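Quick start: what a row looks like.
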Amino acid sequence: MTAVLIAMVVVLAPASLARAADPLALLEPMEAAYARVQSYTARFVRQEVVEGSLRPREEALLKFQRPGRIYLRWTAGRPAGREILFVPGQNGDRMLVREPGLLASLATIVMAPDSPRVLEESRHPVTDIGLGRLIGLILDNTRRAAAAGDLAVRDLGSSVGPEGPGRGLEALLGGQPDRGYYCRRLVLVVGEVSGLPLRAAMYDWADRMVAEYAYLDLRLDPPLSARDFDPANPEYAFPRWKISR
């Protein structure tokens, strides 16, 4: 019996050690956790460096439903009151925008999610907002770094912050900026229950923050309907008159 147990340990130990040494082992479970999610709501918070300048912190109510329906209403920051609605296949795959202000609010603006006007205020198109795109960005970069031997991941332990109980992770992507990684250092808070990234802060090669995203008050698979992604929803303020840009 003892000999059998020893043999089992000898056989199993190398695989266990290899798995423990795999830096992606702490990150890849986010992908499987998100695969089970069909929709969610959250308070989406972001702060980014755009064209060399750190923009003010913004906060918006976010509704998301697969395969990519997005509703946003800004509640804090310079664009407070702005609403955006994007439904794949509608409006020529363009989004509807309602801007705050007396004159601006007279018409709904129809524009591309990656319009130059959008990219003046953000590092990403509107369609990049969401947990799925964030997980994709993280894993695309960390998988490339791992394949090049450039990745180290550290477990920072459990904590309770504004996003709720989570586990902190720090990923270091080595090499130089010319490797093409999105950032040099990534600090994550992954929800203890959801297994999803509730906060992600990214730093450049001088350890300056370039982007931070958070999903607060996250509710998974709430009872969203077509009405939640309809500009005629009485809770929304999209004017009937539309202007294309």
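That is the whole record. The first strand starts at residue 39 and ends at 50. Confidence is low (pLDDT under 50) at residues 1-20.
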